[in-house]
């Protein structure tokens, strides 16, 4: 195998007999390396300044999943316009005594509690269970008070909601239980998190230590990721005052930022280590000429570090010029995939997409600017460690580290159809359950059993039926039918509606008509016989809208709208399902065009898109089996409505990362040899280790979120971890080499008209090879450790 890969450098290249101008990434590396303290101080100032400002202004996260134009949104708007009390959020204070609630002592205690609650700033009205017969269960053991707030849950300060819990639960005792339910209470009980992120970082650090054999070397990618994520978190806190950002945005940013940040820094750092060996082979220090740097004499080590400083800078410049280019392009593909969520037109997800895209952008910038400064700061220690490990490997006579990957690639190439069939069947089988995925939202029934919101949910379900936790609000709107004086006509229509709903299969109970400030509008509350997340409840909403209510509208001349949290969740899920095809088409199309321009191929982008879709489908299938079907003891329920979209955007972008890392190396070998089989084997040999390590780190970071108490984060963690595992194992190790072998030279075919239209984008630089370009340079021991993402020139 030629050792030309250790030869020419971008900064040593020539063009027309003149020195070749360094690329932008090489110039950035040189600046950061030479001016390390400027770069480090600048990043520290950014991190500290942004975090300080964010602490001053605070966050304004809002869970706004309303969709203008949907029926639930129209119902909410009508209630707000007509002054319905139900337009604001409410909470339930659930009281329970096994011996019964109708005792003088309990009535006195509950009355005192509700008086205290009514005095709170955010409370506008309180209805006691003793004022409404329907608010006490038939057996008399469970009752609830309805507390109306002065706004939506996210508009009421968290400290006021926490205070409500404390005030109400102080009256527990003498057999009386007091629990509080409602979205406002659920949000107030949410923890700050941090355990999952910490576990992920610890796991990643352990993998990096095993990979590099040094805590210092392993810590550099982690430090880079923490600076990037910390800075972005502060920016997003401030941006929440101008953009709608859901309260689950920060943990998602941590999840993506840590995975991508460590990944990108790892790719550049791995290339840097390899280039250090090349430099050491050239100046003789690898063979033992620089042995003083291993001694215990501090002065000798400092002298060796100074002598090796120029080589360290050259290694950093080459690493950024090669792996940095790949990181930049890979980061752009992730950002495109995330911003593709704007095509969905869902305001709540647009803010999340913007936040995560900004996280990837800042992470990419940190990898290209902060990491070279850290390499300059710890360069001497890292160099000594790298040379020490290389000498030990050479002394033990270990084979070139790319040998195993080269042998694996050759085995797949000998049996391409078998490898392709096994991998595709496995992915297809895992993806099949995703076809029956049911979308929805978690409710208090998914909360931890220790929370008061879950306790209230269970008590209400036990006392009044499972559908009581997800009531449907049916608005009777006669304002556009004319002749609505004193509300007479709408009152009659509401009565007809109530009779119809009471006779409807799937409805357990219906409240009397509730008037609003406008007599032309009234509303009824219908309680399903099934739980909010049950498929039967979704079917009931569809039946009411498509079949039952239209008949009553024709009979009464009044418009009816089905609203409430359960109906809103159904509307959101349907909108996501309707708009996913457009979203997928945009993301896949733009990414394919980028790959087409880079690799000058028509079939490779198509292959990449299909394989990414297959891996995403398999990960969603795993999420469906675990969380919808209840595998491994998970609580059964629908998959969060935005999970498929978010997983698609994130996984598609990250899968393209690995595609770029592997294909850029294969493409370089193809350009140099025009041998497709050889190019695939060498591509695997040179990038297999880094892709495996990067995937392992991402899997650890993502899988750590399965430990989170929040169901939504558990679904994200599982989906992303499974997708990366399948991508690294089945797709990169089996399907890609098999498909590339079957395509042969056709893999690099691009129609001439299309070639003229597409701009030429080069990740790697191709230079002449031969004696004059350094092709005869000695190959360093350990040089088979191609743990880099970038090409070798």
Give a verbal description of the structure.
This protein is an alpha+beta fold. Strands 8, 9, 10, 11 and 12 form a 5-stranded antiparallel β-sheet that branches. The protein has a 4-stranded antiparallel β-sheet with strand order 4-5-3-6, with helices on both faces. Helices cover 62% and strands 7% of the residues. Helix 11 packs across helix 21, helix 15 packs across helix 20 (603-628) and helix 22 (676-703) runs antiparallel to helix 23. The protein contains 24 helices and 13 strands. The radius of gyration is 31 Å and the shape is elongated. Strand 10 and strand 11 (521-528) form a beta hairpin. Mean pLDDT is 81; it is low at 1-18, 289-295, 482-487 and 766-793.
Topology, pairings included?
Elements: E1 14-15, E2 18-19, H1 24-34, H2 36-57, H3 71-81, E3 90-96, H4 104-118, E4 123-127, E5 142-149, H5 158-169, E6 177-181, H6 183-189, H7 195-212, H8 215-239, H9 249-283, H10 285-289, H11 298-339, H12 347-377, H13 379-396, H14 403-414, H15 416-431, E7 439-440, H16 452-464, E8 472-477, H17 488-502, E9 507-510, E10 514-515, E11 521-528, H18 535-556, E12 559-563, H19 565-599, H20 603-628, E13 639-640, H21 643-673, H22 676-703, H23 711-743, H24 752-757
Parallel strand pairs: 7-13
Antiparallel strand pairs: 1-2, 3-5, 3-6, 4-5, 8-11, 8-12, 9-11, 10-11
Helix pairs in contact: 1-2, 1-11, 1-12, 2-8, 2-12, 5-6, 7-8, 7-9, 7-22, 8-9, 8-12, 9-11, 9-12, 9-13, 9-22, 11-12, 11-13, 11-19, 11-21, 14-22, 14-23, 15-20, 15-23, 17-18, 19-20, 19-21, 20-21, 20-23, 21-22, 21-23, 22-23
